[in-house]
Amino acid sequence: MRIYGVTGWKNAGKTGLMERLVAEISGRGFSVSTVKHAHHSFDVDQPGKDSHRHRSAGAREVLLASGTRWALMHEMRGAAEPPLDVLLSKLEPVDLVLVEGYKRETHPKVEAHRAEPGNALIAPGDDSIRAIASDIPLSMDRPVFDLNDTAAIADFILQDVGL
């Protein structure tokens, strides 16, 4: 499975870039799935709903299904967070999986960068970052794209993965 990441520090524009890339690449006829890493606890369920009640009662996994979608919720119950490759193995095959976060993994990535938060670039110390998408001009040893030039960034990613 082809994977490509979007990484960067908090408030760098990762999620907006991911959203635009999914729309751009899927709009070109490719199937795209995403993986998003969260550093905090999150919940896709709602207290009081049957599925939440199942989880609260101690179920390890709850699969919620309808005619529109299905969702599998897996409770870690104290186990270690699974590595990215294990999570990727749970996805159905697609043309491209875009991964948000996971900056320490070695898959190819584009670094999203905004000047305003004042964070240093990750790219100088990370060869897995193949390009930078920034809101300011940068002189780097790899391609630099305007953060909002989604089509050019998509072209680069698709070429890099061979699509």
Radius of gyration based on Cα positions: 18 Å
Number of strands: 8
Number of domains: 1
Assigned CATH class: Alpha Beta
Number of helix segments? 4
Q: Which outline best applies?
A: globular
Give helix % range.
10-25%
What topology, given as strand order, has the largest sheet?
2-5-1-6-7-8
Mean pLDDT: 93
| Largest sheet report | 6 strands, parallel
Compressed to H and E, one letter per element, the order equals EHEHEEHEEEEH
What percent strand?
Answer: 15-25%
From the helix content, strand content and strand pairing, which structural class follows?
alpha/beta
How would you characterize the overall build of this protein?
23% of the residues are buried. α1 packs across α4. The strands form two sheets. A six-stranded parallel sheet has the order 2-5-1-6-7-8, covered by helices on one side. The chain is built from four helices and eight strands. It is an alpha/beta fold. The model has no long low-confidence stretch (mean pLDDT 93). It has a single domain (3-40, 81-161), classed as Rossmann fold. It is globular and about 55 Å long. The protein has helices at 14-27, 50-56, 84-88, 150-161; strands at residues 3-7, 32-36, 61-65, 70-74, 96-100, 109-113, 129-134, 144-146. 23% of the residues lie in helices and 24% in strands.
